[in-house]
Amino acid sequence: MSTSAEASGHAAGRPVDERDTREVVSSEHVWAGPILTVEDERIVLAEGTEPLRRQVVRHHDAVNVVALREGEESSQPDGGAEILMVRQYRHPVRANLWEIPAGLLDVPGEDPLVAAQRELAEETDRCAATWHALVDYYASPGFTTEGARSFLARGISMLLEAERIEREAEEAEFVPTWFRFDDVVAGVLAGELHNPSTVMGVLAADRARARGWEGLRPADAPWLRSPESL
Q: What residue ranges in 77-188 does DSSP mark as E strands?
């Protein structure tokens, strides 16, 4: 059925996602691990219709950080914007990916901003003076509950030696590196960077910078997180 806007040929107003819950008539717990569970569910989309079978991966939500510096803080001769990145081996895709600092909301009750600050510290030995919510998204809403928030962090400084945390496993290979921001944007558009948090965070930051950073949301802005996240 066409909406009134479609029928009239006029554009609708700005689209806004909203919460909706359909009836779950059965749910089978299939598998559980440290960061996700798998559920086999049967749902009813509309009254009087037959249930549909859907598999759901319940996963921790996540946060990531676009750590950016420019002007006098930049190492670029022209004061151009720079973004802080780390290179991480991702075993499922068998690739080393350049990424912005990121991590899971796997500490019960931890505020997303606090988690983002923790991840920036753990992965790069740095902290930031100002924080804003940049963009929110679901990783793959067709099958997983995982949602993510990208934060914009500015006023970057090094942590004291005593405040730094020793990195382990894949993170032990991290070498925090500043890149010219425009080069990273170009890399995203050229298909040279693939981590979704990086792609979305970088493009959102590029758009926000083009607007002179006007309209940035506060770090604690409302977030449509899945109520079923792990």
A: 82-90, 95-99, 102-104, 126-138, 147-158, 177-180
Give the residue numbers annotated as catalytic, written as ranges: 171
Cβ contacts of residue 198 below 8 Å, gap of 6+?
Answer: 64, 85, 97, 98, 99, 100, 188
Query: 3-state class of 7 per DSSP?
Result: helix
Any idea which residue has 């920036």 for tokens? 120
Token reading at 161: 């030696």
Q: Which pLDDT score is estimated for 1?
A: 47
Largest CA distance in the chain: 67
Q: Please, where are the H alpha helices in 162-215?
A: 181-189, 196-210
d(CA 63, CA 134): 11
| pLDDT, tens digit (0-9, with 9 covering 90-100), for 37-60 | 999 999 999 999 999 999 999 999
C-alpha to C-alpha distance for 205 and 25, rounded to whole angstroms: 42
Q: Partners of 84 in the beta sheet? A: 178
What is the average per-residue pLDDT within 22-34?
A: 95
Q: What's this model's pTM, rounded to 2 decimal places?
A: 0.92
The answer to whether 145 touches 103, Cβ cutoff 8 Å, is: no
Please state, in angstroms and rounded to a whole number, the distance separating the CA atoms of residues 1 and 29: 36
